[in-house]
Amino acid sequence: MGSGRGRFVSLMALLLPAICVAPAAEASCSDGGAAIFNFGDSNSDTGGLSAGLGYIFPLPHGRAFFNRSNGRVCDGRLTLDFLCERLKMSYLSPYLESLDPDFRNGANFAVIGSATQPRNQPFSLFIQVLQFFRFRSRSLELSAQGSKKFLNEEGFKKALYMIDIGQNDLSGAFGSNSNYDQAISKIPSIIAEIKNAIELLHDTGSRNFWIHSTGPLGCLPEKLSLTPKNSSSLDAYGCLSSLNNGAKEFNSQLNGLCEELRSEFKDSTIVYTDIYSIKYDLIANSAKYGFQSPVMACCGHGGPPYNFDANIGCGNPACQVCSENTKYISWDGVHYTEAANTIVASKILSAQYSNPKLKFDFFCSS
């Protein structure tokens, strides 16, 4: 890991030449000028897969807010979208978007299906970081030429760098005929990739990091539908205990990494946010929040108890879609609905689930 990082830093010396940067956009939450760079998977992809590979997610995707295909695997807005709204900034454009993107408030490198491994396979976390370096280098060149559409060097330094990835790695570890111990043994290599990404970003001036843990994997209708189980496999809320325990172990190691890097990078702020507890609370207290069956997909096939069929996904003409007047936590068996994302975002903004307990807009005054 270390030697690879050294070689990459040498490469960056070629990609990031010293240039005189003209005044341009900087992070300022008060006027909607904050900037976020997001790295992740489908939980925060705002259209990367659609832009990159041409995939279309037709209605009913997007029905709750956009009323059209928008590249999100959701009926409306993602948690990331609500966080952007809180900062009075535009929704993040995918880095791969070629048609009228808006990068004044940062960029989104997240792509549906992304994982940390294999590291050289699109669109892994490492590839996303490479894309960011190219984006940063080009932005600084254009800023130096007088463009006001991109951040300058100070803007990149003050921006927030969000990482929300690992769910697909963990899902793959448990889905490859591995027993619990074998699946858990793969977690350190996932954490090592996240560490490498943060170190590389730090090496080029990034100083504000917001890291999301993974959610309760065992509560997803997809996993409950496809995994052999009996009553002893399930917890009190109908979730698969082994997968949730695996998610908690991943999160424990991720939290440990954040503590380690806080000690190493005294010039940086690294916030770990406990997404698992936020989402599990939704499952455990679904009735209190007004949700229907907490482990059943709104958009899927097969009906109760999970309404999930791997061969008939949301968007297929044969799928069954819940009424817009009802509230579900799961949209398609894997991803959350806008109604659920609204609550997840509000819990994030409360700072009660973050370590250290900083408000989401802490970086605006950095």
Automatic annotation (TrEMBL):
Signal peptide residues on this chain, from the entry's feature table: 1-27
InterPro entries reported in the protein's UniProt record: GDSL, SGNH_hydro_sf, SGNH_plant_lipase-like
Assigned keywords, A-Z: Glycoprotein, Hydrolase, Signal
Record CDD domains: SGNH_plant_lipase_like
One Pfam family linked to the record: Lipase_GDSL
Domain of life: Eukaryota
Family to which the UniProt record says this protein belongs: Belongs to the 'GDSL' lipolytic enzyme family.
This protein's name: GDSL esterase/lipase LIP-4
Classification of source organism: Eukaryota, Viridiplantae, Streptophyta, Embryophyta, Tracheophyta
